[in-house]
User: What shape does this take?
Amino acid sequence: MSLRDLFRFFMWAALASFLSGCPGGKTDIIEQKCSSCHSSSVVYAQKRTVDEWGRLVYGMKVRGLKLTPAEEEQVLGTLGKYHSLE
Ligand code: HEC
Assistant: This one.
């Protein structure tokens, strides 16, 4: 494989992950992180302000949710975008 092929491969892989992240990205992180203790529909049933989501996610962490700072940002970003009152 030439360097050029390798480059092309990475471009396609990046594009594919970008495209698949678009429609699926809305709920994936919530499915992964928020559906182990209760159904994720508990989450989707609610609309809160970004502040309230922050407090709620903190509450989930107290109950045992494990999130890296990057994951927390993703979770709050998703909630703020699709399940927000603002
Ligand atoms: C370690 C277990 C655990 C994980 C993981 C978890 N939760 Fe919860 N969650 C709970 C428990 C237990 C309740 C039951 C109600 C309570 O204790 O307030 C709950 C209740 C809720 C409720 C309803 C609360 C209300 O007052 O109506 C929401 C919304 C919620 N969780 C969102 C989330 C979100 C968003 C995530 C992911 C970021 C998440 N949960 C991950 C344990 C968890």
Q: What stands out?
A: The CA atoms of residues 8 and 44 lie 39 Å apart. The chain has a mean pLDDT of 84. Residues 25-86 form one domain. DSSP finds four helices and no strands in the chain.
